[in-house]
Specification:
Length: about 375
């Protein structure tokens, strides 16, 4: 058994890195593969915007020509500069159920990080702020929301054996169609909307939505400065995130909260096409895109995955205006279940809002750390 750093310009190495989870999760009813163009972009140092400011490397554990485990380790210089830290992130961890494989992977990641003057490994945390965070530790019987991590139930034990402990956690919940919305929420929302002169901006087309992406990005960069996972999005990263958002969005489900001509908040709901991605095995070409487009029109699952409010409007109850808008629009949306995606354990305001709505949490993801 040996560990080695892959050559990201080698087609064979890239294939070995990408292929491992397809073997590990074969027959797993819950696992959803990544879209292959997206995972290939992560390993493309010439095209992915992360490499304009930071660096990463990728490791495999192999035995007898068979890949047993993999890991990516990142030096996100923008994150460290903003937070005044020396963290390395790990991501894309996969392994057979063998602690010695995981130990070799994290030893390689630790050596890589230490050689760059970094003192802590944290993760799973990815290349873009839109990447799903954490390791699944509860809710293995459920399919993941679109773009969110899923892993085998033995993974937490592998990380514990490799000396990692909890840094923070995230919960996800769901609401079924017909879930009663507290009348007082609608009343409070209407009163706040009138008091502050707020309006809701909706979109008629993807082209219109695309034009607003730069302005939405500015709100994100202002709204989440106190969040654990926050790192300012660069213009190049925003372009990639925006393209992904527009590709999967139903514009009518994306709402902006406006005060005069200023965006002060947003709430994004996406149609979930995870089942179609499973059916295409992550392949977009030659015909996968047809199935994905059909799924965007026919799926009966949606994800509430993206809410932001400018700091000066937080703590005033104004987020209720956005929730009320979605609640009232729900009758016009063909869905059976909405998943509320990844709220951090320490985000008391959002957790309180979800409690008020009666959201039952059914999945937990955990972010780990290991001090070097």
């Amino acid at each position: 058994m040996q560990v080695r750093q892959i050559d990201t310009t080698s087609r064979e190495d890239v294939h070995a890195f990408i292929d491992l989870p397809f073997r590990l999760y074969r027959g797993c009813a819950q696992w959803v593969p990544p879209l292959l163009p997206d995972i290939r972009l992560v390993l493309n140092r010439r095209r992915h915007p992360f490499y304009l400011h930071s660096t990463a490397d990728f490791f495999l554990v192999e035995s007898g020509g068979t890949t047993l485990g993999r890991i990516a380790v990142l030096d996100n210089k923008n994150h460290n500069r903003y937070h005044g830290r020396n963290d390395a992130f790990f991501y894309l961890f996969e392994s057979i159920n063998d602690p010695s494989v995981a130990e070799r992977l994290f030893a390689a990641a630790a050596d890589w990080a230490a050689s760059r003057g970094l003192d802590t490994i944290i993760g799973p945390k990815g290349f873009l702020t839109s990447d799903g965070i954490g390791l699944l530790v509860e809710g293995f019987e459920h399919m993941p929301a679109m773009g969110m991590p899923y892993n085998h139930a033995y993974y937490p034990d592998l990380l514990a054996a490799a000396g990692l402990e909890k840094e923070t956690g995230y919960v996800s919940g769901h609401l079924w169609r017909g879930h009663p919305v507290p009348p007082q929420l609608l009343q409070v929302a209407d009163a706040l909307r009138r008091e502050h002169g707020l309006t809701i901006k909706s979109f008629r087309s993807k082209r219109e939505l695309h034009r607003w992406i730069p302005r939405i990005g500015k709100v994100y960069n202002a709204a989440f400065v106190d969040n654990w996972e926050y790192c300012p999005i660069t213009d190049e990263e925003l372009e990639v995130i925006g393209d992904h958002l527009v590709a999967i969005a139903d514009p009518s489900l994306l709402k902006l909260l406006m005060k005069d001509d200023e965006i002060i908040g947003y709430l994004f709901v996406f149609r979930d096409i995870s089942t179609a991605i499973r059916q295409t095995e992550g392949r977009v070409w030659p015909l996968g895109w047809v199935r994905l487009l059909w799924a965007l029109r026919s799926t009966r699952l949606v994800n509430l995955n993206g809410m932001g409010l400018l700091p000066q409007y937080q703590g005033m109850g104004i987020s209720s205006v956005l929730f009320a808008e979605i609640a009232r629009a729900a009758d016009g949306v063909r869905y059976d279940r909405a998943e509320v995606v990844q709220i951090e354990d320490r985000n008391v305001r959002s957790l309180t809002n979800m409690e008020m709505l009666g959201v039952p949490f059914h999945k937990r993801h955990r972010v780990y750390r290991r001090v070097l």
